[in-house]
Amino acid sequence: MASATSNSLVKRGFTLIELMIVVALIGILAAIAVPSYNDYIRRGQIQEAFTFLGDYRVKMEQYYQDNKNYGDAAGTACATNAASWNAFNPGAQRFTFSCVTSDSGQKFVVTATSTAGLSGGSHVYTVDQTGTKRTTTFKGSSVAKTCWVLKGSEC
């Protein structure tokens, strides 16, 4: 009877190798998931630049309608004498904005430059009076795209 009892005992638990396999799988999944999540967060943060660049461009067109130019003189900040929105501050958290005129105030370029609050490296986007969108820096690397790059090299 004693031998029947010892045979019916079942050992329970995990071996060390089984635990190591689980730890390795979790490590592999984390190595894939964390960078993907960070890229997802960065793409959401970049939308702030696109929104405020569009807003800035509309304000410049409104100024042009009233004054027949985008600014006082070439090479100056855009619409410096616009009392209604002088020193335009869109309230962006992750980007700073600048604007420069050219061609006797008939052209402008608005630039959005990322601050330290943006994950994934520095980004620089521009828009001009014709609505041409450009990306000059993406994830800290120089690029020359005639669109606003959001993911990889895609627009």
What would you say this structure looks like, in words?
The chain has helices at residues 2-8, 16-67; strands at 95-102, 107-114, 124-128, 133-138, 141-145. It is of the alpha+beta class and 155 residues long. The longest helix has 52 residues, at 16-67. A five-stranded antiparallel sheet has the order 1-2-3-4-5, covered by helices on one side. Strand 3 and strand 4 form a beta hairpin. The protein has one domain (15-145): Glycoprotein, Type 4 Pilin (2-Layer Sandwich), CATH 3.30.700. Helices cover 38% and strands 21% of the residues.
Indicate the percent of residues in helices: 25-40%
Strand content range: 15-25%
Parts with pLDDT < 50 across at least 5 consecutive residues? none
User: What value does the Rg take, in angstroms?
Assistant: 28 Å
Write down the domain tally: 1
CATH architecture: 2-Layer Sandwich
Tell me, rounded to a whole number, the average pLDDT.
83
Strands, count: 5
Structural class: alpha+beta
Q: What overall geometry do the principal axes of the alpha carbons give? A: rod-shaped
- Summarize the helix and strand pattern as letters: HHEEEEE
Please report the number of helical segments.
2
CATH topology: Glycoprotein, Type 4 Pilin
In CATH, what is the class? Alpha Beta
The spatial strand order of the largest sheet comes to 1-2-3-4-5
Main sheet summary = 5 strands, antiparallel
Terminus-to-terminus distance: 77 Å
How would you describe this structure in keywords?
alpha+beta, Glycoprotein, Type 4 Pilin, rod-shaped
